[in-house]
Structures are given as structure tokens and as C-alpha cells.
Amino acid sequence: MTHLLVIGGASSDILHFAGQKAASAGGAGMYTAMAAQRCGVQVSMFGPRPDPCPERLQPVTEHLSEWLGPHFSPEELPQFEISYEQGKTEYLKKSLGAERMLSPNELPIDLSKYDLIHVTPLGDAVRQLPFIQACRQRGAKRISAGTDLYNAEEQPQAVRAVLEESDYYFMNRREAEAVFGSLASAKTEPGKILFVTLGEKGALVIQGDFVTQLQGVPCKVLDPTGAGDTFCGATGAYLVQGRHPVMAARSATALAAQMIEHPGPTALFWPDPPPDAPWDQRVVVNESQVQKVTQLVATLPEVTPFNFAAPENPPVGHPLALEWFFVSTLQQFSFWTTDNGKYHLPLIASIDGKEQKGSDYLWQGYLRPLENDPEFFTPQRQANHTQTEMENLFRADDGTVPMPALDLHLTQARQYGQDMLALKLTPHEVVRQAQ
Q: How far apart are CA 192 and CA 135, in angstroms?
């Protein structure tokens, strides 16, 4: 089973909501850890350990794989009193207590067994950074981190330093605006992912300068305490289980929505599987028909797997075949022209003495530099791809360049090269990791 470590502990909270007052477990580390375990991963937590453990924290100990960190009396735990009335959250009391006394030196020497380590804000981004650096030094595979509004507004430089050291980073809209100046300016370096929660409007998944917006899940808010940390823990759990970042975040919004319909972390202790975000019901997959089609196709003798050994592909065993496929497969899009925003004509033209259509035309174009310019397929060359090179690649026998959306193809080529260089990857290394 995949294993997460959350750095940041639990707190002893008093919550006010809907005219009620309740004692509750709290804390960014606790909400993150409990959300992750609800999503099916093993979770350890590093934070102040109360001795003896208060009753309100007993469910936390029961759901953790292990609770690491120094012992403190229950009175020394962080304490918060939070009011949520008429749609407004107000902190009536805030004390970080023993969490301020945690030291990176107290972390386990070997952290390589954890698939992901999440570092909560710990009250101060300047203190947060040494924990992240210590995790790297002690073998952390991947690191995620989050912030809070105080750090984002008062220590934006320190927050940016933490972001640079993390693989995944979580913040809400106001925090993102404080750190980046505006939501539109938020972006990441290649290989890093930023998640920005937008409350009832959902969340953003930012990969480089590419942004995916996810819709919120409708719910009746009772107590929003810990919603962002719940989203963070659920997203982290789904990421280490192999989900795409967008799909991980999409499912996490559903758990966060369920959690805030109940007091404190109540819903995170439930034994049933976590909810998933509803799909758009305008399109429904007919599973029975899919099975019928697959069973039919499997019996047709003329249906065979495409072996990518056609005349438009490199010869079998060619030393640059892998590089060729990486560069050219990325470009398999936009093989038609439009008229008034609608489909007009397909790409059909003669190239190197043969009339080709769509993807076959593109494959043929990429064969041109295979023998005479092998460096063309390196990340360095792709990162510096020129307009002239792209035009020559797709020039038809009549001298025209019929490839639609040529500017998009050029942008894709350059971004591929830049990302591969920034990530220090090659096609062979990607395949090695995938295997």
C-alpha cells in the first residue's frame, strides 16, 4: 500500500456553527492526514504527540499508521476557536502551541519509504523551508506543501522559496493572488504542479502555464474548517495511487464537499469509500454495447494491432526510432481546415511523391530529417525549432505548406524540448521509468 507522511500535527479546537458550539479535533496536519487515509492510503503524521491523548483525538490515533514526533502535554497542543456564521469564518482564538517547537532534526533519518511527504505551513514559511530541505536530504521521493493567508501576505518571498522546493503545492485563491499578484499570473516550473482551491467554484490545476479549471461540487456548508487541507490530503493520496493530477483533484473536491457538510473532521473518519465527483450526465457510456463491440472485434481475423512499421515510420531497429516517435506523436492533431469556425476540409496533399492524408502526411514529413539531420530530434533542437524548419518539414510537392495550425505545431515542438531539458529527461529515460 502507498504510504504518505504528513508533517504538521493536530490541534484542540472549539467550533461555532449554525448556532452550535462543539469541541473537535483540528489542525492542518490532522485534516490532511485523515483525508488521505479516507482515500485508501497508509498515513503517518509527524507532529506534537499529546500524552495522554485527549478523547477528541482518539479517532486520529486509530486511523494513523503511526504518529511520530516529540511528546507534549495536551495543554501544549495548538488550540483554535473558529466561528462560521452567516457564511463568514472568524478565528476567535489561535495558538500554535507545541507545533512551533518542532525541529527538522527530529524527523526520521530515512524518509525514502514514503511515497509522498506533505509539509503543512507550520505557522511560518521560513520555518517550513528547513523541513522540506531536510526531507530532500533524507531521501524523500516527492514533496508537497501548502501555505496560509498570513504567510502568503506577510512572507510571499518565503512562500515562493517553499514552492520552488516542492513538487506539488496547494493554496487558495486569496493566497495565490498574494503570492503571484493575480490568479492569471500563477504558474509553475516544468515538472511541478500547483493546485488552487476556489471554494464553491472548484479548483485550478496549474501545470507550467497550462491551467485546468474544475467545477465545484454542490453541497450545503455546515462547517468549512479544514476544507483546503482535506482537498490537499485527498489529492495527494490519489496522486500516489497513480491518478492524473486533474482527476486526482477532481475527486478531492468531492471529499472536501462532503466533509464541510458535517462538523469538523467527522466525515473523514467514516469507513465507507470516499465520494467521487459526479460526471456530466449528458453523455453516458453504454457499457453493454462496448462489451459487444469488443467481443466482435476480437474475433475478426482482419483486425490486427498496428505495429508502427509502416512505410511512413522508421525502419524496424532504427537507432532514432524512439526519439522520432516522441517528437512526431506529440504533433498528431489538427488535420483539417475550418470555415466560419466549423470543419471545412481534411488535409490531403502529395508529399515525397505520394498523396497522404492527415496523420500519415505528418508521419511522412517527420521522416525527412531522420537520415540527413539526426540532431533534429534532440530536445535541444526541438526547444529551438524555427518557423522555417517547420515549414520545410511539411512542405508539399507543389511547394505549399498545407499543414493547418502550423503555429500550434511549432509551439508544441518548442515546449516539448524546453520541458525535456528542464526535467533532464530523454525518451529512453521516460521509457525506462515507465517500465
A: 17
- Which distant-in-sequence residues (6+ apart) come within 8 Å of 304 by Cβ? none
Query: pTM score, two decimals?
Result: 0.85
Q: Which three cell numbers stand for residue 427?
A: 525518451
79-111 b/e (C-beta count within 10 Å ≥ 16 → b): bbbbbbeeeeeeeeeeebbbbeebebeebeeeb
Mean pLDDT of the 340-346 span: 93
Query: Beta 3-7 vs 42-46: how paired, if at all?
Result: parallel
Q: Which residues contact 106 (CB under 8 A, 6 or more apart)?
A: 46, 69, 70
User: What is the helix (H) or strand (E) element at residue 176, kind and residue range?
Assistant: helix 173-180
What's the grid cell of residue 216?
Answer: 465545484
Q: How far apart are the first and last CA of the chain?
A: 19
What are the residues whose beta carbons fall under 8 Å from the beta carbon of 287, sequence distance 6 or more?
A: none
Three-state secondary structure call for residue 145:
strand
Q: Which amino acid makes up residue 161?
A: A
Nearest to 101 by CA among 129, 81, 71: 71
pLDDT digits (tens, 9 = 90+) for 183-214: 999 999 988 999 999 999 999 999 988 999 99
Beta bridge partners of 116: 4
Full DSSP string of 205-236: EEETTEEEEEPPPP---S--TTHHHHHHHHHH
φ, ψ at 128 (rounded to 5°): -65, -40
Rama region for 311: left / alpha / beta (φ>0; ψ in -120 to 50; rest): alpha
Q: What angle do CA 271, 272, 277 make, to 5 degrees?
A: 135
